[in-house]
Write a structure and sequence with these properties.
Elements lengths: L2 E2 L1 E5 L5 E5 L6 H7 L12 E6 L6 E7 L2 E2 L8 H16 L2 E7 L10 E8 L1 E12 L2 E11 L11 E7 L6 H13 L2 E7 L8 E3 L8 E4 L2 E4 L2 E4 L2 E2 H4 L7 H14 L8
Parallel strand pairs: 6-10, 7-14, 11-12
Antiparallel strand pairs: 1-5, 2-3, 4-5, 7-8, 9-10, 10-11, 12-15, 13-14, 15-16, 16-17
């Protein structure tokens, strides 16, 4: 690991303070610095530790500070309103049946198909989730089984993305595809322009039954899905070519009016 003769940290006045390795000779100073968030420079991206070597004391690099994989996104008021509503809905009811209409155009029998039924999940907004080295993804809504702590196909991680004017960056999308292939993860999309026709939440008909949380599109098992079909089954593309795969999805979502153009 790289060694450093200097480190920086935010002091009690919320200002970046520089500290030299020479100060590590003091036991009291070392104890204080071990409680600090040491960086390689002011606003640095690496967390440092202290190695009190008898002859050559120094700071060493421990790990990168995780940063947002797609920073700077400013969502619409409608996005924030729906995000808050959906999260409150999920926490209000104990049981949820996540799925889709097999035939959303059929007025007589839409055919609700279940992806997974979950209960006793805890849900939160703006959840930071570390998926790759040094980076995290911020999920609009994220839920997990807090009662059993299981992570299985029957108790997967569940993320819900509320989409109005923004979709994932290509980097974030690629990470989500890879993660869903290796871990039980479902990322469901609530496209506001096609709510409630293609996606919606519906409260339980009885107190002991499941609510319906319905998606038109979602990520699961390493693929992007339209209801019960993988994108690669509909078009001649493959997740193995992530740039082509991503660009086609984004193009189709805009063409079909699932994402509203920014004003």
């Amino acid at each position: 690991m790289p060694k450093y003769e200097e480190a920086s940290y935010l002091n009690d006045q919320n200002e970046w303070e520089l500290v030299s390795y020479l100060e590590l000779a003091s036991e009291e100073r070392r104890a204080d610095l071990r409680e600090r968030d040491l960086r390689e420079k002011p606003q640095g991206l690496f967390q440092l530790g202290i190695r009190n070597h008898p002859k050559t004391p120094h700071f060493f690099e421990k790990k990168p500070i995780r940063t947002d994989l797609q920073p700077g996104i400013k969502e619409s008021e409608e996005h924030n309103k729906q995000q808050k509503m959906i999260c409150a809905f999920l926490n209000k009811y104990e049981k949820h049946n996540l799925g889709y209409y097999e035939r959303p155009w059929d007025k007589q029998d839409k055919g609700y198909e279940s992806l997974v039924k979950v209960k006793n999940y805890t849900w939160g907004k703006e959840v930071r989730f570390g998926l790759i080295y040094g980076k995290y993804v911020v999920f609009d809504i994220f839920g997990r089984d807090e009662e059993s702590l299981a992570l299985t196909d029957k108790s997967p991680f569940i993320a819900i993305e509320v989409v109005d004017t923004h979709f994932h960056s290509q980097k974030a999308f690629k990470v989500l595809l890879e993660t869903s292939k290796n871990l039980p993860l479902i990322v469901g999309y609530m496209f506001l322009t096609v709510t409630p026709h293609f996606n919606s939440v519906k409260k339980p008909v009885r107190s002991n039954s499941f609510s319906n949380v319905r998606f038109q599109c979602y990520i699961s098992d390493g693929s992007f899905w339209y209801r019960n079909e993988r994108l690669e089954d509909l078009y001649e593309v493959s997740p193995a070519a992530p740039e082509v795969y991503y660009n086609l999805i984004k193009e189709k979502l805009y063409e079909d009016g699932y994402i509203r153009a920014e004003p």
